[in-house]
Design brief:
Layout lengths: L9 E8 L2 E7 L4 H12 L3 E5 L4 H14 L4 E5 L3 H4 L10 E2 L7 H6 L3 H20 L2 E7 L1 E3 L9 H10 L5 E2 L3 E6 H13 L5 E5 L2 E4 H11 L8 E2 L10 E2 L2 H5 L7 H14 L6
Parallel strand pairs: 2-3, 4-6, 5-13, 6-10, 7-9, 8-12
Antiparallel strand pairs: 1-2, 1-4, 9-11
Length: 276
Amino acid sequence: MAEKQQQGSNVEEGSSTAAGKVVCVTGASGYIASWIVKLLLDRGYTVHGTVRDTAVSGTLNVLRSCKKASVKRVVITSSMAAVTFNGRPRTPDVIVDETWFSVPELCEKHQQWYVLSKTLAEEAAWKFSKDNELEIVVMHPTMVIGPLLQPTLNASVEVILNLINGSSSTYPNFAHGWVNVKDVALAHILAYEVPSADGRYCIVERVVHYLELVKIISKMYPNISLPYKCGDGEPLFPTYQVSTDKIRSLGAELIPLEKTIKETIESLKEKGFFAL
């Protein structure tokens, strides 16, 4: 599967071998998937990787292959985009959870094509799962940042780079959920390993406005030149909450945003994308 904000993956159960269980990770060179592969190898799995395919058809192609191979469980990377775009208010007292679904008609009306693609892909996956008695678990990470394993820059980490490289004097008037890539990778593996895992899982450590993000970075790195005003001059877009109850039920403990930001910036320095 392909993602715009972060590259996606599927984790599928294979057969047992003398070396341990075999797992296939699609899109294995992507940002999230490369961490999934690393953690699987660290746990002793044999990992097969495949290249990515886009959109709805890519998801269904993977599921059809899994059905033919008698795979028991598939963990699918979706996005919070398939959760939150439904017209419901998102204010500080609102808690988004796994019962929220984005509405395709609303996505079309507002020409949110990425959101629409993630929403339709998930709908298609659940329908295929029901029609073919294939067990799936769907993971919904938000903006994924943290250390880079690959030498290339992905879109979600680039958001942080654009805040710290002096390219703009303004920051976006928006609130995002944020999460560490290592937590997202581990959550996929737990969803595969824990027998009781089922349904959908939101993976969000915290929702903060870009203003708060700038404040956190400024406190850690006072010598970095950061944007000093909001881009459009309108009142600040409100933050909201995302429930972590279900993802924690798998045994996942999410890394605090402050540590994730520091890991992201240090990784950008290490990979040569940024220098103080």
